[in-house]
Amino acid sequence: MHASEKYTERVQKLRAEYWTTIGSVNLEDLIFIDEAGVNIAMTRRFARSPQGSRAYGNCPDGRGKNVTMIGAMSTEGIIAAMTFTGGTNASAFETYEPIPLIIFC
Prior knowledge:
Layout: H1 9-23, E1 32-39, E2 66-74, E3 77-85, H2 90-95
Antiparallel strand pairs: 1-2, 2-3
C-alpha cells in the first residue's frame, strides 16, 4: 500500500523539481551529520533462556551520566567525531564544527 497522493499532479511536479535539484549536487560535497546518546544504565529488561529455566542477569546500580556522540561522514569516510557528557543542545551542536557546512535548498 502507498499514499494515493503519490499520483497527483502536484506531487508529480514536486518530484520532478526534486530530481532536477538533486541531480546538480556533487556527491563529494555531501556531508552527513548524526547524533546519538548512550547511558551505562541502558540495560535490556527482557531475556531468553532454555524452556523451564529462568534467565538471570545484572545491571548497573544507579543511572550514571548520559554520553552524547556527534559524528560527520562523507564519501571520504568519517570526517570528525565528538563525545561529551550530557545531552545535545544548540550550544553543544554549534561547538561541533568539523568543517564549514554547505546547506542545499
